[in-house]
Write a structure and sequence with these properties.
Elements: H1 3-11, E1 29-32, E2 35-42, E3 54-55, E4 58-59, H2 61-82, E5 90-101, H3 109-124, E6 131-137, E7 146-154
Parallel strand pairs: 3-4, 5-6
Antiparallel strand pairs: 1-2, 2-7, 5-7
Helix pairs in contact: 2-3
């Protein structure tokens, strides 16, 4: 990891977790050319516990955004693993797809996924700016609140 990213994480009171292991029959990331496709990262707390809940039913937008921030850290952890621990190779975040466990009438999915987007821009500057989709899901694996997958360009 670069000293710049380390200091920005520290300024936020965060540390990069170990790259989470897959929960089923898939790989956490695949590199093709200069792109790394990272499988969906589910919302977990700093101790690895699941952040569960349904937006619009007892879970606030702020809680959902905090869960999405945790997904951002897992995404970066996977890119860190894919680059052999050299995040200086990360050129930019290309695309995120965020899934929000929410009720049918909940419409603030973009505000929830902003938790991830905002953190990536805070940590990476312009290289963190990306295209994005934010969609609702009737349920997510293990009852988690948020799952986010990403595409990253490396050098």
């Amino acid at each position: 990891m670069t000293p710049e990213i380390s200091s920005r994480l520290e300024a936020h009171g965060l540390t990069l977790p170990d790259a989470p292991a897959p929960q089923a029959n898939y790989v956490p990331w695949v590199q093709t050319g200069a792109l790394i496709f990272v499988s969906g990262q589910i919302s977990t707390d700093a101790d690895g516990g699941l952040i569960t809940g349904k937006l619009g039913d007892g879970m606030s937008v702020e809680d959902g955004a905090a869960a999405a921030r945790r997904c951002a850290l897992s995404l970066l952890a996977q890119v860190n693993a894919a680059t052999g621990g050299d995040l200086s190779r990360l050129k930019r975040v290309v695309k995120l797809t965020g899934f929000v466990n929410s009720t049918p009438d909940f419409t603030d999915q973009p505000k929830v996924i902003n938790g991830c987007s905002d953190l990536l821009v805070d940590l990476l500057g312009d290289a963190g700016r990306h295209t994005r989709s934010a969609v609702s899901a009737a349920s997510l694996p293990l009852g988690v609140a948020v799952e986010i997958e990403g595409i990253f360009e490396i050098i």
